[in-house]
Write a structure and sequence with these properties.
This protein is α/β, with parallel strands linked by helices and 363 residues long. The chain is 25% helix and 25% strand. The protein folds into two domains: 146 residues, Cytidine Deaminase, domain 2 (3-Layer(aba) Sandwich), CATH 3.40.140.10; 208 residues, Dihydrofolate Reductase, subunit A, CATH 3.40.430. It has ten helices and 16 strands. The strands form three sheets. The chain has a nine-stranded mixed β-sheet with strand order 11-10-9-8-12-6-13-16-15, sandwiched between helices. A five-stranded mixed β-sheet has the order 2-1-3-4-5, with helices on both faces. A two-stranded antiparallel ribbon has the order 7-14. α3 packs parallel to α4. The mean pLDDT is 91.
C-alpha cells in the first residue's frame, strides 16, 4: 500500500509545477488505519513559493474531528521534510509537534540546509521513518531541484520545431511557421513551468521573440527570465527582449563594449580567456538560483549545448511541412540539429509529432 499512497502524494506535488521554484515540488498524504482498512484523512502540496509547505497544508486539511488520529497516522511525503527556518518554519518540527506516528518518503533532500537532518530530527523524536519509496519517480519529479544541487547548474531543456524534411528555419535563418497552434500553446505552457528561457543572437535578431507566456496565461502571470547570448553586443536595443517587461540577462564577451542602461536588463560579461563559454554561463545561472532553462534556439546555440554535453532533456516538434529538401528559394534554409539521447516518448500534438529525449552519459 505504500506505493499507492506515495503515487497520490506525487500526483499532488505536480500541482505545484511552475509555481514553487526555487523550492522543490512536494506532496503529502496523511493515512490512518491498518493495512486493508486505511483511509486518507488529509492531503496537501506546496502550492506557491513562500507559502505553506505540503506537510502543513495536509495537516490543515484534516477535519477537526479527525485530528486525534494523527499520532496513529502515516505521512507519505515525496521529499525529506525540511529542518530549517526559511520563509516557512521547519516541517520536521511540525510533524513532531503533531506526534505523527510514521513518515514514509521518496528521497533525501539534496539541499545542504536539510540533507538528512530532517530525517534525523524525526527519528530522534521516536518517529518511524522509511525512505526510498518510489525514489526514481521522486527524482524525476524534482529533476530540476536535484540537478541544481548535485550538478551545480540548471536543468537544461533543448527545444525546437522542424519540418518533415529536417529544417528549423528558412533561407539565411528567416523565420517560417513550422509547428501548429496547439504546439505553440504547449510551448508557452512549458515556458510558464521553467525559470528561464534562452535564445542566441541570430534568433533574437531575425525572429524578435518576446519569450513570454501570452498563449498560456496563469493566475500568477509568471513569465520566465529571458536569457540572450549577444557576444559582441550587436543586437538592436529596440527589439522586444529589451522592452523591460520581464527580467532579462544578456551574456557577452565584449569587454570594450559600452553597456546600455536598461530597466530589468542585466549584462553579464564572460571573459574569452575564462575557458568554455557555456560552462561559465551555466555556473553563473546557478549563482543566480536559476534551476531550469528552456533553450529555444537557434541551431548554432542548440548544437553548442549538445557538443558541450550540457543538456538534460530534448523536446522536438516535427510538422508535416516540407521545404523541398532546401531547393529553390529555400536553398539556404537552416538544418535542424541532430537528435541525441534516449527516446522517452512520442505523441501527436495536433498535426505535429512531439518526441522527447533524455540525456545519458556519453551522449
Amino acid at each position: 500500500m505504500n506505493e499507492i499512497f506515495m503515487l497520490r502524494a506525487l500526483e499532488l506535488a505536480m500541482l505545484g509545477r511552475g509555481h514553487v521554484s526555487p523550492n522543490p515540488m512536494v506532496g503529502c498524504v496523511l493515512v490512518y488505519g491498518e493495512e486493508g482498512r486505511q483511509r486518507i484523512i488529509g492531503e496537501g502540496w506546496h502550492q506557491r513559493y513562500g507559502e505553506t509547505h505540503a506537510e502543513r497544508n495536509a495537516i490543515l486539511s484534516v477535519r477537526p474531528e479527525d485530528t486525534y488520529l494523527l499520532p496513529e497516522s502515516t505521512a507519505y511525503v515525496t521529499l525529506e521534510p525540511c529542518s530549517h527556518y526559511g520563509k516557512q518554519p521547519p516541517c520536521a518540527d511540525l510533524l513532531m509537534e503533531k506526534k505523527i506516528g510514521r513518515v514514509v518518503c521518496c528521497n533525501d533532500d539534496p539541499n545542504p540546509l536539510v540533507a538528512g537532518q530532517g530525517f534525523a530530527k524525526l527519528r530522534a523524536a521516536g518517529i518511524a521513518v522509511e525512505t526510498g519509496i518510489l525514489a526514481e519517480k521522486g527524482r524525476e519529479l524534482n529533476a530540476r531541484f536535484f540537478t541544481f544541487f548535485e550538478r551545480k547548474r540548471p536543468y537544461i531543456l533543448l527545444k525546437w520545431a522542424e519540418t518533415a524534411d529536417g529544417f528549423i528555419a528558412g533561407e539565411h535563418g528567416r523565420q517560417i511557421k513550422i509547428s501548429g497552434d496547439l504546439s505553440n500553446r504547449l510551448v508557452h505552457r512549458w515556458r510558464s513551468e521553467e525559470d528561464a528561457i534562452m535564445v542566441g543572437t541570430n534568433t533574437a535578431r531575425l525572429d524578435n521573440p518576446r519569450l513570454n507566456i501570452r498563449l498560456w496565461p496563469t493566475p500568477a502571470g509568471k513569465n520566465p527570465t529571458r536569457i540572450v547570448i549577444d557576444n559582441q553586443l550587436v543586437l538592436d536595443q529596440t527589439i522586444s527582449l529589451f522592452d523591460g517587461s520581464q527580467p532579462t540577462i544578456v551574456y557577452h564577451q565584449n569587454q570594450a563594449g559600452k553597456l546600455p542602461e536598461r530597466d530589468n536588463v542585466i549584462y553579464s560579461f564572460i571573459s574569452p580567456d575564462a575557458g568554455p563559454f557555456l560552462t561559465h554561463l551555466v555556473q553563473d545561472l546557478h549563482q543566480r538560483r536559476i534551476q531550469s532553462v528552456l533553450v529555444e534556439g537557434g541551431t548554432t546555440l542548440l548544437n553548442s549545448f549538445m557538443e558541450a554535453d550540457l543538456w538534460d532533456e530534448m523536446r522536438v516538434f516535427r510538422s508535416q511541412t516540407m521545404l523541398g529538401e532546401g531547393r529553390g528559394r529555400f536553398a539556404d534554409a537552416i538544418k535542424a540539429p541532430i537528435v541525441r539521447g534516449n527516446l522517452i516518448s512520442r505523441q501527436k500534438v495536433g498535426e505535429d509529432e512531439l518526441t522527447i529525449y533524455k540525456n545519458s552519459p556519453g551522449d
